[in-house]
Design brief:
- This protein has 284 residues and is of the alpha/beta class.
- The chain has 10 helices and 13 strands.
- The strands form 3 sheets. It has a 7-stranded mixed sheet with strand order 9-8-7-10-11-13-12, sandwiched between helices. It has a 4-stranded antiparallel sheet with strand order 3-4-5-6, covered by helices on one side.
- The relative contact order is 0.14.
Length: 284
C-alpha cells in the first residue's frame, strides 16, 4: 500500500511525496510539526501541513540566504538569525571565522527539540560557542536592539502563521534600527508564481522598500517549495548586492557549496519579467 504526503499549493495544485513512514507528529504551542521519511527527499519536516525543509534540498535555501549577504558585506562580526531552529543557517555561518556572535531567536522550543531528534547533524551547529539561542518572540527581541548587528537573517518561513509578526512594517523598521550603519537584512520572500501567493510577495517588498534605502530581490529553485521557485529579499543601508559584491574575496575562503557560486550570485538577481513587474509596481 502506497503512503503519500500531500501539500496543497493552491485550490487546484498540490505536491505529493511518497513516504516510507511518519516519524513524528507533535502539536506545539505554535504549530503542528510532522516529520516523514521519503525515498526521494530523505527526511522532511512540515509545519501545519506545509513542507519547511527536506534533507535533499535544504542546502539551496540555507546557502542562498547566508552566502549572498556574506559575499557583499566586507566585515560581518555580529549576526542575528530570526528562526533558524533547525541549524541550517548556523551551519553556513560557521564557515566565516570573522563572525564573533550569532544570536538565534527561535520562538518554538519544541521545533528545536524535534529537529534535534530527527535532524541532529544540522542542529548540532547551534552548539557552536559563538551561537546563542533565545526562545522568545523575534519581534519583541528586536525592540530592545539598536545598532548591534552587521547582518540580520529572517529565517521565518510563514508570513501568515505564528511568525506573522516577522513580516510587518514594524519588524522591518526594528531590523533597520537593530543594524549597524552599514548593516544588511536578508529574508525569505516566498514564491510569486501562484496568484494566491502574489500579494504576500508584493506586501513584503513594499515594506522593505519603504524601510531601507537599498532593497533588491533574488531567486533560487527549491523543489519542495511552491512551483519549485523561491524568492529572497536583500535590504541594506549602504551595500548594493551587485555593485558591492566581491567574488574574489569570497572565493579565497574555499567554502564548499552545493548550490551557491559567485556566478550564480549575479544571475540570481536577474528576475523573470513578471516578477520584475510586480516589484516595480510596489516601488511606485
Amino acid at each position: 500500500m502506497d503512503f503519500w504526503f500531500s501539500e496543497m499549493h493552491t485550490g487546484n495544485v498540490k505536491i505529493s511525496v511518497r513516504v516510507d513512514k511518519q516519524l513524528a507528529s507533535v502539536q506545539s504551542e505554535y504549530q503542528r510539526i510532522d516529520v516523514f521519511e521519503s525515498p526521494q527527499f530523505g527526511r522532511f519536516l512540515t509545519s501545519n501541513g506545509s513542507i519547511i525543509f527536506s534533507e535533499a534540498d535544504e542546502f539551496t535555501y540555507d546557502e542562498m540566504i547566508v552566502h549572498v549577504p556574506m559575499a557583499v558585506h566586507p566585515n560581518v562580526k555580529s549576526v542575528l538569525v530570526i528562526g533558524g531552529g533547525d541549524g541550517g543557517v548556523a551551519r553556513e555561518l560557521e564557515y566565516y571565522d570573522e563572525i564573533e556572535k550569532i544570536d538565534i531567536v527561535e520562538q518554538d522550543k519544541k521545533f528545536v527539540e524535534i529537529c534535534n531528534t530527527y535532524f541532529p547533524d544540522s542542529v548540532r551547529w547551534l552548539s557552536d560557542p559563538r551561537a546563542h539561542v533565545f526562545y522568545e518572540d523575534g519581534l519583541r527581541f528586536l525592540r530592545g536592539k539598536t545598532g548591534e548587528y552587521d547582518l540580520i537573517i529572517n529565517d521565518c518561513t510563514d508570513p501568515l502563521g505564528h511568525a506573522a509578526g516577522m513580516f510587518t512594517k514594524e519588524f522591518y523598521g526594528n531590523c533597520f534600527k537593530a543594524l549597524k550603519k552599514d548593516g544588511i537584512m536578508v529574508y525569505q520572500h516566498g514564491s510569486p508564481f501562484y496568484d494566491e501567493d502574489e500579494e504576500t510577495c508584493r506586501a513584503m517588498h513594499r515594506k522593505a522598500f519603504k524601510s531601507f534605502p537599498i532593497s533588491r530581490v533574488y531567486q533560487a529553485h527549491i523543489p519542495t517549495c511552491p512551483a519549485g521557485y523561491w524568492l529572497f529579499g536583500f535590504a541594506s543601508k549602504i551595500y548594493h548586492p551587485l555593485n558591492d559584491f566581491n567574488p574574489e574575496r569570497w572565493l579565497e575562503r574555499n567554502i564548499k557549496t552545493w548550490y551557491y557560486t559567485t556566478h550564480l550570485h549575479k544571475g540570481a538577481f536577474m528576475l523573470p519579467k513578471y516578477v520584475e513587474d510586480l516589484l516595480t509596481e510596489e516601488e511606485k
